[in-house]
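Regression check, FE(4)-NI(1)-S(5) CLUSTER with Oxygen case 620:
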Amino acid sequence: MSDKSVDQSTIKMIKKAKSDGIETVWDRLAAQEPQCGFGQLGICCRNCNMGPCRIDPFGDGASHGVCGANADTIVARNLVRAIAAGAASHSDHGRGIVSTLLASAQGHAPDYPIKDEAKLKALAAEYSIAVEGRSVKDIALDLAGQVLDEFGTRKGFLQFVNRVPEKRRALWNSLDITPRGIDREVVESMHRTHVGVDNDYVSLILQGMRTALSDGWGGSAIATELSDVLFGTPSPVKGTSNLGVLREDQVNIILHGHEPTLSDIIVHAARDPELLKEAREKGAAGINICGMCCTGNEILMRHGVPVAGNFLQQELAIVTGAVDAIIVDIQCIMPSLPQVASCYHTKIISTSPKAKFPGAEHISFDEHNAMNTARKIVRLAVENYSNRSPEKVSIPSDQMEYMAGFSVEAILEALGGSLNPLVDAIKSGSIRGIVGVVGCNNPKYKQDYSHLTFVRELIKNDILVVGTGCAAIACAKSGLLLPAAASEAGEGLRSVCRSLGIPPVLHMGSCVDISRIMQVAAAVANVLGVDISDLPLAGAAPEWMSEKAVSIGTYVVSSGIFTILGTIPPVLGSKNVAGLLTSGAEKVVGAVFAVEEDPAAAALLAINHITAKRKALGLG
Ligand code: BF8
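Current build output:
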């Protein structure tokens, strides 16, 4: 079992799943092996019905698909489709948040008052919307309208592109990869990858970059910024993490998925005195709301809600036998959950019309009537508490405290209102650079091992780590999100952390919140008057698996930040595509991808990159 995870609670629950006769993601991975070699190399194509086609990687079979596409075209098309799917996922999430803001401003979503008026006004100013003397409702109406337009804007570029340093904007314009409209880029990517349209791998990858940029500086940024307006901008907060946060004597509800529209209101519904009374009548001491994956990150960032785990722990939470309901919305939710739940008493409740699960109970979540729907859902969990079988319950004791909530605004506040102290620390070398560590778990790799090994090496070398997504949850579970973890950092970073009272790894939120990291990168570049690609920065997704991660990696590289992938992307079937991504892109966008499965070696790549960038800036 220890080859599957470094997390003791995961190992314990995999063992329990085995003895309970439950099939998990690791069993299904084993059943898939050996996995398709053509798929791993990215050289199979199902884009038309003359196929499916595949290219022989050894050169003694088919070198072209039926239409004539070669490996370069097929690999590039597959990659661009993955980027489009990832960008669409983040951006459609963003659209949901703007629609809620619009409904709130129109008076149709009374349970979603605007929580951060200052942020609303700051964003309105970015969009040149008049603020002085106007009501919050009117400003919100205008802002929601303009942000919704970003999905199909005809002005030719997205608003948040203006946050990017001028040099980078000029570069994007010269390459014709400035994102023009979020939906437009996704649609054009699907069009170009249809049989017989764009067949040039360079042209395809440039479109992939533009689509990814419409995610990072469009859909994701919109999701982050407007979530802050609606639910509050995060500030430092403490909580606990891992499966040990489940309570034997309470109704346990896990919120899993991505959109805070659902999770935030359930957190409030669970405090309803009437529901708490009903829980007590059932014999429970209370209602314990926990998060999982990115919706877990949304509510831990804003409310310090306990987070039960990251991607690979979703089935295992059910295996504890102590979860009364898992409430899901969209993305990263395994379709196996209802099947696992059928062996216990756990209810799986789906809520999004976009994401239904055979075997789950569906309660359509309606933002116009949010609190009532939320109460109804919580009540189902409360009622289910008495169906628990005590003999099936085994909650691992593993849990760890965390400090999270590092929005850009919170970082600025910790620094006394300006980025200058951070820039000075980088200049002096107390902080040698910053690395964003993000992304998923992947059952092909030992859970959390790459995240933690990579992060520990970096902080030891005075590199500040900023994290999001399941990577940040891995850090939470291992104590790296505590100020005390500064003892593991090098002398320079340790002294900065101690003087500010912050951990050496800053949790910046969910995966759409990588836009926060990009905003800091752009702001630091603007302070120094350089391009983002000149800064001592790197990105990494040590255990990535989702198409969203492909989009993220691509917009981070296209923004000028060297990015290390810890799991192998399906591009090796084309030497040209792999070469462009790992070397040629340097001349195009000033950054490349590296692929390194060994996290210690990956850390060395990041450290060397940061050293080289510091030298080029004239820093020691
Ligand atoms: O958006 S890190 S497994 S939960 S895809 Fe999914 Fe990956 Fe986790 Fe969040 Ni991001």
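Comparison notes: The two ends are 45 Å apart (CA to CA). Residues 243-392 form a domain with the Rossmann fold fold (CATH 3.40.50.2030). No diff flagged against the previous build.
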